[in-house]
Amino acid sequence: MPAPGRRAVVHLRGEINVRTAERTAWLLVEALRTEPAVLEVDMAQVTHLSAAGTMAFFAAVKNARASGARLIVTHARPHVRRVLYRLGLVRVLTVPGEDDSDPPTSQ
User: What domain range includes position 43?
Assistant: First the structure.
């Protein structure tokens, strides 16, 4: 059971792709083991997110749901937000400033 009000933050950086997805998933799942009520994933320094890289988030969502925690993605760059939106992750993650009715625009 998550500790009420407890928040953990994971700062990701660089590329999240097929080569780094497993390590990224491990980092997120490990952070969830501290039983936060909210896990914030700060993506300010993420330069690229591939479709294969999003597998890390699916693993984290599964673990978060099992523990009752909520995942929030913050500071994602527009191109990263687009990947999250296109793959439907905005439906299971909280991405401030995004909702299903207002998809990110291509630039």
Answer: 3-91
- Is residue 86, in this structure, part of any structural domain at all? yes
Domain count, the chain: 1
Domain CATH number, residue 56: 3.30.750.24
Assess if residue 54 is contained within a domain.
yes
Distance CA 107, CA 85 (A): 15
CA-to-CA separations, 80 to 32, 35, 84, 104, in angstroms, rounded: 22, 27, 6, 10
Q: What is the pLDDT of residues 17-75, one digit of tens each?
A: 999 999 999 999 999 999 999 999 999 999 999 999 999 999 899 999 999 999 999 99
Q: Locate 64 and state its tokens.
A: 């978060």
The CA-atom distances, in angstroms, between 33 and each of 6, 39, 44, 48, 62 are 12, 10, 23, 26, 13
